[in-house]
Every structure is written in structure tokens, then in C-alpha cells.
Design goal:
This protein has 8 helices and 7 strands. With about 250 residues, the protein is an alpha/beta fold.
């Protein structure tokens, strides 16, 4: 990944933080976004001794204008963009009686519409990179909940992640050969979010995962580096279920 520029949205915590640091460890210059005004500044400082670098950017991707503003900031900072990793997302779990338009709109805006709008606004930067080091990459973080059905009442989350999986295939068909598009669909990963789960929830997740454990940073980074590096250049339109078999159950 040396010499490549990668944008990771939602890069300040959880899976985004894992990927931002992991890509920098492999030599990439990573533009990591956060909705917080300061951005993931601590992560950028933490990466000071890595082969690559991490640059913190502020972004609110809940609106079309926010997506356009981030694409403009990327173009100003880097010009050519080799890889975008669409990781920013949100989930709301609520009983079906309470899953109203306000919940749906918020989750759809961030999880699905932002992937589409940010990709289209980034096309000039992605195509500029493709002219130098073909092909450019669009990597979207989907979910095992978009493949199988979650036991939780996260109605809008599962639907948007399934939509992202289909959107990936449509983008792959339209944007090739200059840009290849793939999705990673994680299952249960050890993050700050799962750390806050009740122990019985975590036990149930692990029990429902044929691999017998949660995913780690090494699992996620390995998959994303493969898709982002020259090794993954012949793969497009694919949804990779990185879930230890969770979606089978």
C-alpha cells in the first residue's frame, strides 16, 4: 500500500479505527474522517511511527452537501484517491411499533445514501488515481445483517446494509474497468461497542458464530488490504462475508 492514498470514513473508532491504523501500517496515507470537529486527531498522532500516515478530516455524511464537501477536501488534500472505504454508519434498534420515519431517514441517509453520493462526488479523484495506478477501489463496509436476518429489531440497519450490497454490484457494473467495487460484510467484531454489550449478548453472538469467536483487527485489515492492494485488482462486484460463518446461522 506504499504510495497509495486511502479515504476511510468513520475512521476515529471501532472498525474504522482498525482499518485506518492497519492501512497506515501497510504504508498507505490514510485520510480518516469523523463527525467530531477535531476529527480523529489522537489516531493521527498515534500513527506517527508507522510506515504510512493518517490525516484527520472532519465530515458529516448525513447530507448530500456534506458528501460534496468531503470530496472537495479530498481533492484539495490529495488530488488522486486510490481507495475509498465507506465505513461510516449507524444503527438503531427499536420495536417495530417505534421504528418510525425519523429512525428510517437517519439510518438510510448515513448507511446507504452517503455511500452513493460520496462515491459520485469522488469520481474525479478516483479516476485520476486510476490513470496512474489502475484500477481505483471502492470498498464498502456492509454487514452480516445484510445477508442473514438479525435477531435484533434493527429493521432499518439490516435493510440499508442489504441495499449497500446491491449498490456495490451496480457500481461495479457501471464504473469498471477503471474502478472496482467490493463490499466487506463483517459479523461480530471485538470493538468498543461490543465491549459495552451485556455479557449474555456477547456469549450469544459467539455461540452463533461457527468460527467460535469474534473477529479481530487482523481479520478485518487483512481483507481490506487484499481488496485495496494490487492483489485484489481482478475482483469486483463481490460481497465478502467476513463473519466467521455468522450469516449461515
Amino acid at each position: 500500500m506504499r504510495g497509495r492514498t486511502v479515504l476511510v470514513t468513520g475512521g476515529s473508532r471501532g472498525l474504522g479505527r482498525m482499518m485506518a491504523r492497519g492501512l497506515a501500517e501497510h504504508g498507505a496515507t490514510v485520510l480518516a474522517t469523523s463527525r467530531a470537529d477535531a476529527g480523529p486527531v489522537d489516531l493521527a498522532a498515534e500513527a506517527a511511527d508507522l510506515p504510512g500516515a493518517i490525516v484527520a478530516l472532519h465530515a458529516d455524511l448525513a447530507t448530500e452537501d456534506g458528501c460534496a464537501a468531503l470530496a472537495a477536501a479530498v481533492a484539495e488534500h490529495a488530488g488522486a484517491l486510490d481507495v475509498v472505504v465507506h465505513n461510516a454508519g449507524m444503527t438503531v434498534a427499536a420495536p417495530i411499533e417505534d421504528h418510525d420515519d425519523a429512525v428510517w431517514d437517519e439510518v438510510v441517509d448515513v448507511n446507504l445514501k452517503a455511500v452513493f453520493h460520496l462515491t459520485r462526488f469522488l469520481l474525479p479523484s478516483l479516476r485520476a488515481a486510476a490513470a496512474l495506478r489502475p484500477p481505483a477501489r471502492v470498498i464498502t463496509i456492509g454487514s452480516a445483517s445484510g445477508i442473514g436476518v438479525s435477531r435484533r429489531e434493527n429493521w432499518s440497519y439490516g435493510a440499508t446494509k442489504a441495499g449497500v450490497h446491491h449498490l456495490t454490484r451496480h457500481l461495479a457494473l457501471k464504473l469498471g474497468p477503471d474502478i472496482v467495487c467490493n463490499t466487506v460484510a463483517p459479523g461480530a467484531f471485538a470493538t468498543d461497542m461490543t465491549d459495552r454489550m451485556p455479557p449474555e449478548w456477547k456469549d450469544a453472538l459467539i455461540a452463533g458464530t461457527p468460527a467460535g469467536r469474534m473477529g479481530t483487527a487482523a481479520d478485518l485489515v487483512g481483507a481490506v488490504v487484499f481488496l485495496a492492494s494490487p492483489a485484489g485488482s481482478f475482483l469486483t462486484g463481490t460481497v465478502l462475508p467476513l463473519d466467521g460463518g455468522l450469516s449461515l446461522t
